[in-house]
Structure formats: structure tokens, C-alpha cells
Design goal:
Radius of gyration: 19 Å
Order of helices and strands: HHHHHH
Number of strands: 0
Largest sheet: none
Helix content: over 70%
Length: about 170
Amino acid sequence: MQETQKKINKEWFIDVFKRIWHIKEWKSLYTENRQVANYIIFGVVTTVVSFISYWLARKFMFIREGGSGGEIDIALSTTFSWITSVTTAFITNRLWVFDGKVKGAKNLLIQTFNFYSSRFLTYIFEVGFMWVITSFLFPDNKTLELVAKIIANFFVLILNFILSKLFVFKKKK
């Protein structure tokens, strides 16, 4: 059973990879993998929102007069960016990725709380991951800090998808 599953997964990845290179195949590839494709598309949108909101906060909101833009300014800008991007992610995931429409204000409030809670957990994971890498394993190494950030984001992306699918936007039977 497990061997068959590995073969199916390997064949699926090979098929998807081959079809990515043929533009005519994109529509059927998208249709067959709509949820994952939308998650990636709106993940890019959310990332752009994150970077723009961080930049705007750093440029206009949290630099004190005569300040150098130190750690507190970076933390405030990062927090503003996180709130903005998670809000964007909630809206796009709810409407277009997981079709998470619910009935009633109470259910919407629960869904919103679950989404922000799950994203906060992955935020804590990312902060912890980055802290360990930059404080203990590779202090003062900006190149490895960037690599660690990319690796952390990869894990966060997967964790966010799993938590959203199984916990936040799960379909009731």
C-alpha cells in the first residue's frame, strides 16, 4: 500500500512538472489542482502585501525623528506587516482557496479566530526557527540568515495550508 502511494505521488509530481512547461496544459492542470494553485497564487499576493506594508511602515510610520530605525522600529513594522498580510490571507483563503463561507456572525467569528490563531502559531514557529538559526547556529552570517528565512517560510507555507485545510476551513459533514 505504502509503495503504491509513493509511486502515485511520484507519478503525480512528474506529470505536473511536465505539464507546467506546456501552456496549453495550464488550464487542465489548474482545474485538477485548483485549491493548491489558488493557495500559491494568493500566497504570492499575500507576500507582496507583506513586503509593501513592511516597507510603508518602515518608511512612514515607525521611524522616529532622528532615529536609526532600530530593533523596535523593525518589530513594529514587522507586526504591522504580519497583521496586514494575515488579513489578506484570511480574505483570499476564505473566499477563493478553501471556499470557507459560513453562516452567521458567530461562525464567522470562530473561523476568524481559528485562522488568526493558527497563523500566530506558525508565526511563533518562524520567530523561534529564525532565533535559533541567527543566535546559536550561524550568528552574524547574513547569507545563512536569508537561507534560514527561506527555509522557515517553506515550512510555514506548508503548515499554514495544512492548518487552514484541516482546522480553519474544514467542511462539516
